[in-house]
């Protein structure tokens, strides 16, 4: 879904279109879940927080002021929900990126033969291990910005909002992170 389509869906949703609400949910729930499990391994808690997020935005849609395509708003809101709940439970991990990546969730509707599924799973596992190895060389903040930019595909402006950075600082952090990865893995 393009950024323009996301913006259009948000406008329609705020105006009362329930189909647009469903499209926003389905377009973002997988990425939100994968983002949420970076904070906690409790997948059910992440699902609950996503449900709470979407329930809250539905109830308060007339008062929402969402900039851009709304994705940054969703990620920031989920992060706030999770941190609030985890702090309440006293189980928030300070270095939540240090424990590796969770398995990708099968949100795809594609049908594969068992052989194709095995090959796809094997390729994903190799890619996941390579990504983990690359990200392990970065600081937690560098890992977060790389994930937001290249995994979650957020714009620099959305990243700035989410990480409380100015535009140039975000650009610099991304470039330093990529340089560090290139330096480490170009020599191997």
What does this structure look like?
It is a single chain. This protein has 188 residues and is mainly alpha-helical. The chain has 2 domains: 1-96, Rna Polymerase Sigma Factor, Chain: A, CATH 1.10.1740; 114-188, Arc Repressor Mutant, subunit A. It is 69% helix and 0% strand. The protein has helices at 3-14, 18-36, 43-59, 71-89, 114-136, 140-151, 156-163, 167-186. Helix 4 runs parallel beside helix 7. The longest helix is centred in the middle third of the chain and has 23 residues, at 114-136. Residues 91-112 have low confidence and may be disordered.
CATH C-level of the largest domain: Mainly Alpha
List the uncertain runs. 91-112
Overall morphology = globular
Discrete helix count:
8
Name the beta content range: under 5%
In helices, the fraction of residues equals: 55-70%
Order of helices and strands: HHHHHHHH
Q: Sheet with the most strands? A: none
Fourth-tier CATH superfamily name of the largest domain: RNA polymerase sigma factor, region 2, helix turn helix motif
Fold-level CATH name of the largest domain = Rna Polymerase Sigma Factor, Chain: A
- The average pLDDT is 78
